[in-house]
Design brief:
By secondary structure, the chain is mostly helical. The protein has 20 helices and no strands. It folds into 3 domains: 1-48 and 63-203; 208-296, no CATH class; 318-368 and 395-412 and 423-482, no CATH class.
Length: 482
């Protein structure tokens, strides 16, 4: 057993198994599979470090798992042998070995087959009353990684046993438990979720940044908000050390907080327009998260970036100029291959961010008008302030491609008469307000976005088409026919 647990490579482990294959029992099989999983995890970590050094983008997909580990050893002869042997011994396995083997196979990123899974699920169901806190956390995590729903009878027994063990689960096990249920689209009853939140509340200080992101994402998927205590913890955590979160964790966290705000609209209907910010997390914490994520864009796909922006827009936060510049520069070359749903999300997000910008401008104008009024009351020497001093450097005036919210799109004949933003500003009489800033995104980004839309529109579902059309219309973007 000791030699199995200390094997330094897949080859060494395979040699041991071949030499003692007739003496192996279920304890050896469980230990060998777990060792393979750890060896695969080490190889995966080395590969991820190399990818980060090369600033390679992560693939389009679901939010990150609590533990990533798709090792190269999942296709080895040792793994195939152990998988077959574990299947033959499934009815001899105790709860610890059952859960350990499920964890190891899932961590290796391998799909063992329907028959193997059904037999292991059946064996786990029979021994469910003996499952402890450790067995519960890693078993549901494995089911989620396999995307294998074990059935309502199994889930009912599992939830009953998990409820009895909630207060014995550590922070990681609690996160894995809820993440697994959410990934299988299984929503526990509200009383069960309330007890889970109470147990998680006592473990908040032990949660890693990734665990926070996964747990809040799982709650949002179940249409539940994290609650004031958790939001206050996130507020302090993001302000203190937002860069401790990975780019993917920040993307998922912001997306989940935005989704949670949709579930709490009636309770926090005025939060997006108030200075205090969003659903308890706060504008300062959101600014720190957005800044940290913008410096990790190399690890984010177009999907991740779109979800991050969508979350910020839902929470009523307009990122700063430099952040938006980096986001537009990062996503522009990736638009052509983006999924139609992601293009629709980007259009919707741009509309929301543009509306936030317009509200900011309106508040600034109202403040300037109040200042002018107070200066006029002071006497004739008071000089009225100029309403607008030219276009913002990060909000270029587009050239006939788009218009602002509610405006009539520019006609083709007017495109030849466009002037620069500063010329437009100088031609306006003082006090008449800013020229119509047509879109938050640069013209070149909009051109790439519309070109991608033309290519990908045929593959879009009706809902994405409707969302994209509505958002473009609200932005005043007039796609030219092709």
């Amino acid at each position: 057993m000791r030699a199995i647990c200390s094997a330094s490579s897949d080859y060494v482990l395979g040699t041991l198994l071949q030499r003692h294959q007739h003496q192996l029992n279920f304890l050896h099989v469980s230990a060998a599979l777990c060792r393979l999983a750890h060896l695969g995890s080490d190889a995966q970590q080395q590969q991820q470090q190399q990818q980060q050094q090369q600033t390679a983008s992560s693939p389009l997909g679901d939010p990150p798992d609590p533990e990533l580990g798709q090792g190269a050893t999942s296709s080895s002869s040792s793994f195939t042998f152990l998988l077959s042997l574990s299947h033959a011994m499934v009815h001899q396995l105790r709860p610890r070995e059952l859960s350990s083997i499920l964890w190891a196979v899932a961590k290796l990123g391998a799909y063992p087959g329907k028959a193997w899974l059904e037999d292991f699920v059946h064996a786990a169901h029979q021994q469910m009353p003996a499952f402890n806190a450790r067995d519960i956390g890693i078993t549901i995590w494995a089911m989620a990684r396999f995307q294998f729903h074990p059935g309502h009878a199994w889930m009912s027994a599992f939830l009953h046993q998990a409820q009895a063990q909630l207060h014995h689960l550590d922070a990681q096990a609690l996160t894995n438990l809820l993440w697994g249920l959410a990934s299988l689209d299984y929503h526990p009853p509200d009383p069960w979720l309330d007890q889970w939140k109470q147990a998680a509340g006592r473990q908040l200080r032990h949660l890693t940044p990734q665990a926070h992101a996964n747990a809040v994402w799982a709650l949002a998927r179940m249409q539940r908000a994290p609650g004031p205590t958790w939001e206050a913890k996130l507020h302090h955590l993001l302000l203190a050390d937002a860069p401790a979160f990975s780019g993917k964790d920040l993307s998922m966290l912001l997306f989940a907080l935005g989704s949670s705000s949709c579930c709490s609209t009636s309770e926090h209907s005025s939060s997006s327009s108030s200075s205090s910010g969003s659903i308890g997390v706060g504008q300062a914490a959101l600014a720190a998260a957005a800044s940290a994520a913008s410096h990790q864009l190399g690890s984010l796909s177009c999907s991740d970036t779109a979800c991050m922006l969508w979350g910020l827009a839902q929470l009523g936060h307009l990122p700063g100029p430099s952040i938006l510049q980096r986001v537009f520069a990062h996503t522009q070359p990736r638009l052509q291959s983006a999924d139609p749903k992601i293009l629709a999300i980007l259009a919707f997000t741009l509309e929301r961010l543009q509306a936030l910008r317009q509200r900011q401008q309106q508040r600034q104008q109202q403040g300037q008008q109040r200042q002018r009024g107070s200066r006029q009351q002071q006497g004739p020497l008071a000089q009225p302030a100029r309403d607008w001093e030219g276009p913002s450097p990060w909000m270029p005036v587009s050239t006939g491609m788009s218009g602002g919210s509610g405006s009539r799109p520019d006609s083709p004949s007017s495109a030849n008469h466009q002037v620069s933003g500063q010329q437009h500003a100088d031609s306006m009489p003082p006090g008449s307000g800013p020229p119509y800033l047509k879109c938050l995104a640069p013209t070149s980004w909009l051109a790439s976005f519309l070109a991608a839309t033309y290519v990908r529109l045929l593959a879009a579902d009706p809902y994405s088409c409707a969302m994209m059309g509505h958002s473009l219309a609200q932005l005043g973007v007039c796609p030219s026919p092709k």
